[in-house]
């Protein structure tokens, strides 16, 4: 097999993935079942490739290059993810991205294709959703591979073994310079590849390469900092100015805020339980709400879960009890009941924790202060309010 010829072929078909491959060392290794990458280098078994056509060989290497572009080995480590299941989630994303990129690369005629329910979602969200449903991760991945083999799908995309532990040292054992855990050489390689296609971001949803690189090289705030930053906009002094009665004085006098605007001491919270938001994320969210309650000196916080409608309202007057809130789930999602409740129950501001998968026609008419935390759906842009995106462990602001 002529590796250089395959690199040239891919480069002629796809400038982005071709540029990635041109700068990646490819190593023959018969201990590898098919082909694999550790994020810096690609390894392949020549025995596997000898029965593939030239086009299929190119498709396999393009698949590995896409894993490098999306930094999947390094993101797996950051998640401390179960390797086999992470590999399945990553293969869903890679194959879908290549299939929709439309620049000439053709995948082998088999493999893991993205289920519709995961389209547009990042690898982390897909992984967590599958993790939630699988009783035994080892058995889950084993059955997935066995089912594919029965259908004759003997290709790299179905092996669920093509992601290796990431490299932090070079061939001489020297530590690699990095930005947020990703070697700078990889980031520079990705930037060069994006320049070759005019800045076009390979990938989709939360795994769009230009968005991933942008998050790495720009300082970002985590979700707690973003929420606190938003809350600080509403912090006021204990006193505000109001016009007194004409009979008592001709001057403005200070008065306690609570005397005139009691709603300013309440925050409404709405948690979407219809999608892929994990229990871990909800617990983390509730912990931050507890701290926010104290920081803003609130007198009351209401929390409601929603799906096809609103669950019963939980009213908290003590922050310590917020962590014990248990969301109720019913499947499906609609936001109209949330908007109606916000209009009827005025508050300092309203927080909506959701995956954004709903018809949002009613949002544009809302007159209240809204802060959205969008989980695993970077394509959704609320019609009103401020917004942050979860992917799912870090939020960025728009």
Describe this structure in words.
This protein is of the alpha/beta class and 398 residues long. It is 39% helix and 15% strand. The chain is built from 15 helices and 14 strands. The model is unreliable at 237-258 and 393-398 (pLDDT under 50).
Radius of gyration from CA coordinates: 25 Å
Average pLDDT rating: 81
Give the SSE order as H and E letters.
HHEEEHHHHHHHEEHHHEEHEHEEHEEEE
> How big a fraction of the residues is strand?
15-25%
Topology record:
Elements: H1 3-13, H2 15-22, E1 25-28, E2 35-37, E3 41-44, H3 46-49, H4 54-69, H5 72-79, H6 83-101, H7 123-133, H8 137-150, H9 156-159, E4 178-179, E5 182-183, H10 184-196, H11 209-217, H12 223-232, E6 239-242, E7 253-256, H13 257-260, E8 266-272, H14 279-295, E9 300-306, E10 314-316, H15 336-344, E11 349-354, E12 370-375, E13 386-390, E14 395-397
Parallel strand pairs: 1-3, 8-9, 8-11, 11-12, 12-13
Antiparallel strand pairs: 2-3, 4-5, 6-7, 9-10, 13-14
Helix pairs in contact: 1-2, 1-4, 2-4, 2-10, 4-6, 6-7
Structural descriptors:
15% strand, 398 residues, single chain, three-stranded mixed beta sheet, 15 helices, Rossmann fold, 39% helix, 2 domains, alpha/beta, seven-stranded mixed beta sheet
Short description:
This protein is about 40% helix and about 15% strand.
């Amino acid at each position: 097999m002529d590796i250089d010829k395959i690199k040239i072929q891919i480069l002629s078909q796809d400038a982005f993935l071709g540029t990635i491959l041109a700068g990646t060392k490819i190593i023959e290794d018969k201990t590898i079942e098919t082909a694999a990458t550790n994020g810096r280098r690609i390894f392949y078994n020549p025995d596997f490739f000898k029965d593939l056509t030239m086009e299929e060989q190119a498709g396999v290497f393009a698949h590995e290059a896409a894993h490098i572009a999306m930094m999947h080995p390094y993101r797996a480590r950051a998640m401390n993810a179960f390797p086999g299941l992470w590999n399945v989630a990553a293969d869903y994303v890679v194959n879908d991205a290549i299939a929709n990129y439309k620049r000439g690369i053709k995948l082998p005629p088999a493999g893991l294709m993205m289920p519709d329910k995961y389209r547009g979602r990042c690898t982390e969200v897909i992984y967590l959703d599958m993790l939630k449903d699988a009783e035994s991760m080892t058995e889950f991945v084993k059955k997935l591979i066995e089912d594919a083999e029965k259908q004759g799908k003997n290709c790299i995309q179905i092996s669920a073994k093509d992601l290796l532990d990431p490299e932090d040292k070079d061939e001489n054992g020297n530590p690699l310079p990095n930005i947020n855990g990703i070697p700078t050489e990889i980031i520079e390689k990705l930037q060069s590849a994006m320049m070759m296609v005019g800045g076009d971001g390979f990938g989709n949803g939360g795994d769009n390469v230009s968005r991933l690189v942008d998050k790495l090289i720009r300082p970002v705030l985590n979700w707690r900092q973003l929420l606190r930053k938003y809350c600080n906009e509403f912090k006021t002094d204990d006193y505000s100015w109001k016009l007194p009665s004409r009979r008592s004085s001709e001057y403005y006098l200070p008065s306690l805020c609570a005397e005139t605007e009691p709603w300013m001491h309440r925050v409404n919270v709405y948690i979407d339980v219809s999608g892929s938001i994990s229990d871990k994320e909800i617990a983390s969210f509730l912990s931050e709400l507890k701290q926010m309650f104290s920081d803003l000196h609130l007198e009351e916080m209401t929390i409601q879960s929603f799906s096809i409608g609103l669950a019963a309202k939980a009213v908290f007057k003590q922050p310590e009890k917020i962590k014990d809130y248990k969301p109720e789930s019913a499947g499906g999602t609609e936001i109209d009941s949330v908007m109606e409740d916000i209009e009827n129950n005025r508050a300092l501001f309203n927080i909506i924790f959701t995956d954004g998968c709903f018809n949002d026609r009613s949002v544009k008419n809302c007159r209240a202060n809204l802060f959205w935390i969008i989980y695993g759906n970077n394509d959704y842009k609320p019609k009103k309010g401020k917004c942050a995106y979860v992917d799912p462990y870090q939020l960025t602001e728009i």
